[in-house]
Amino acid sequence: MNVLHYQVGSPQAAGFVYRHWLAFSIGILLCLMATGKALHHGHNAPPGTLKKLILDGEAGSRGYNSYNRGSMRCAKSNSAPLNLTNMSIGQIQYYQSLPSCSSQKLLAVGHYQIVPETLDIAVRTLKLPPSTRFTPAVQDRIFAFYLAKEKQPAIDRWVRQGQGLYSASYAIAKEWAIFKAPNGRGVYDGNGNNKARISSVKVTLALRKAREDYLHLRNKGWDEDTAYATALGVKKG
To answer: Within 13 Å, how many C-alpha atoms sit on residue 57's CB side?
Structure first.
């Protein structure tokens, strides 16, 4: 093995130290990025879509791995990283069923902050086995084909038929506490820590975009469900 000897303080020594420091720093950065990708899945939320609005308002940077435990008094939400997307729906439901203030209690989970009762009905409606992983694709499917179609059908009706923009905007405020209803107030304002912060104007813009995108994709020959899901900002899965 060849050993290089540099005089301390020489340009060669300085360059040697810099190159190794740079290589080390890049290695650390790549490791951090890899870890981040495992717990911060690519959100793939197109700008202006309803999916992006929900990400900004409800889920935040953790996106599909976002969660809260239901009580700031007992345990902080998102205080530690959880890889929800690698858990099965059955596991999620178990943790959601735990008593309030349990250290492992989960309440609202994922990109769309799905609460226990909603998840229970969604998996029955969409016929998702308990062993199904709570992946980004599964969360998107629950959003498009249960939350926005079955639970809040006014959203589906607006996107597909162009009917009831006011009702669709109100339905979004009913489903996600962060959004203001058309009257300028949040449906759940004052209930616990809930306080709507995203205006109904932004909600309306996202809904109008969804309707326009749906019509555009249908005119291109896309089938109804694929055009509908894509208009909301998700891929049909």
So the answer is: 26
Angstrom distance (rounded) from CA 180 to CA 58 = 13
Residues 183-232 pLDDT 10s: 999 999 988 888 999 999 999 999 999 999 999 999 999 999 999 999 99
For residues 133 and 85, the answer to whether their CB atoms sit within 8 Å is yes
- CA dihedral over 54, 58, 60, 62, signed as positive or negative: negative
What tokens were used for 42? 């690519």
Q: Which residues contact 47 (CB under 8 A, 6 or more apart)?
A: none
Looking at residue 196, its amino acid is: A
The whole-model pTM stands at 0.79
Residue type, 33: M
Q: What's the rounded Cα separation, in Å, for the pair 144 and 210?
A: 12
Contact (Cβ atoms closer than 8 angstroms) between residue 89 and residue 128: yes
Give 41-66 pLDDT, tens digit per residue. Answer: 445 788 999 999 999 988 877 899 99
